[in-house]
Amino acid sequence: MAPYVAVLVVLVTLGLILTDKLDHTVAAAGGAAAMLLAGLVLGFYSEDQALEAMHFDALGLLLGMMILVAILAPTGFFQYIAIKTGRLSGGSPWRLLLLLGTGTALISLVFNNMTTVVLVGPITILIAELLAINPVPILMAQALLSDTADVGTSVGDPASVLVASASGYTFTDFLTHSMPVVAIAALVTLLMLRLLFSKELSEGPDNPSLVMTLDADEALLDRVTARKVLVVLGATIVFFVLQRPLHLTTELVALLAAAVALVWVRPNVRDVLLRIDWPVLIFFVCLFAMVGGLEAAGVFEPLAAALAPLGHTNPRLLGVIIIWVVAGLSALVDNVPVTVAMISLLGGLAVAGVNVSALWWAVVFGAGFGGNATKIGSGANILIVSLAEKTSTPISARLWTRRGLPVAIATCAVGSILFVLLFPWLQR
Residue 327: CB partners within 8 Å, gap ≥ 6? Predict the structure, then answer.
């Protein structure tokens, strides 16, 4: 009885999220409450178990990085970068896509891609309007490249944060194992975008010199604060790399960095707190509670038992299956709940004696690449679609799927091939 009730709670919650019947955070909160209530009534889940299901290390890392972004965002730093790259393009649509797309992807390696897109997207639209070119290829490139690239580090994407928390992999582990695959996948994404948007990118701007009228220095409102936060961020990355020899945890580094930035910059704390994306953190807490209920109800045990023989005999094939399953589910839902569920499943496989060290990377690749397929596949996609609705060229679900699905299939294929070829390395 308990497994069926737990699964029903999750399916209803996901249905409410997918159909936009409720705000996704509200739906998740209702799902968590329903899971706990069902668990208490049926005797399979308690408040203590829900608390044990929390990944406080992941929450701490997200909070620390959010504080850094909240301090940096008002300085105009992200707009400054966008304008600089726009000027470098010389007004060429393809160079603009290349520079703004890769720039957004690089920033997303450190900062949450949703935050990056929100800050850089409006400037992208402004540049496109000045040049009288179609902003859709550039906006979609920013989302697709950030979705692909942000799983290259342990802090760029919520799915990576979760996997790092569950597996114990460090920032350096992601750089050495995930980043090479992600770099090749990002290159494939660029080539696919060049092909898929060839018609739009061939239409040159009416007056390319207009992009040179944008003043990046005017966009950078607070150089002193920006410089201080970037120094802290640089030090944070260094400590991320050194966390294993220094016996530091990722969340401790992030929270200490946030504390240093707050003390050094001394911003208005109330304003900083208002700029933090609290609904995202609450969403995570609720997801942890729901998946904890699934685990307590014994939902993952038969799945782990069914997959364990394949994990023993052909772990490469199991990894490829995980990539495509996670990718497919991430395209329909969001990679966060899919990743949380996979963490429990891999935990069950580990208990069954399967070496899951390489399978964690399969989850990372599937979660990162699969979200490209649909407009609801990631938070960055949703935000880009929302921004495009304010222009004369909105992005429909059909248009996104026609462009995004081929990118998702191509990057998942690349991820699968490299997973098989690099399996001995990924297993270390």
Answer: 365, 366, 367, 369, 370, 373, 408, 412
DSSP reduced 3-state for 70 = helix
pLDDT the model gives residue 423: 95
CA trace torsion 249, 252, 254, 259 (10° rounding): -160
Q: What is the pLDDT of residues 358-381, one digit of tens each?
A: 999 999 999 999 989 988 777 788
DSSP conformational letter for 371: G
d(CA 153, CA 149): 8
Q: What is the spatial distance between Cα 390 and Cα 388, in angstroms, rounded to a whole number? A: 5
In eight-state DSSP terms, residue 170 is -
- The ranges assigned to domains in the chain are 2-52+77-220+277-426
CB 338 within 8 A of CB 373: no
Question: Is-contact 196 406, C-beta < 8 A?
Answer: yes
Residues 6 or more apart whose Cβ sits within 8 Å of residue 387: 117, 121, 122, 125, 139
Contacts of 181 (CB under 8 A, 6+ apart): 361, 365, 414, 415, 418, 419, 422
Q: Distance between CA 169 and CA 164 in Å, rounded? A: 5
Amino acid residing at 395:
I
Please report the pLDDT score of residue 206 as a whole number: 65
Amino acid at 392: S
Token reading at 144: 């697709």
Write down the pLDDT at residue 256.
Answer: 95
What confidence score (pLDDT) does residue 303 get? 78
Q: How distant, in Å, are the alpha carbons of 168, 240, 254 from that of 246?
A: 15, 10, 15
Predicted confidence at residue 174, as pLDDT, reads 93
Low-confidence ranges of the chain (pLDDT < 70): 18, 20, 112, 115, 206-207, 334
User: What CA–CA distance (Å, rounded) separates 397 from 193?
Assistant: 17
d(CA 278, CA 250): 20
Cβ neighbours of residue 257 closer than 8 Å, sequence gap 6 or more: 64, 68, 232, 233, 235, 236, 239
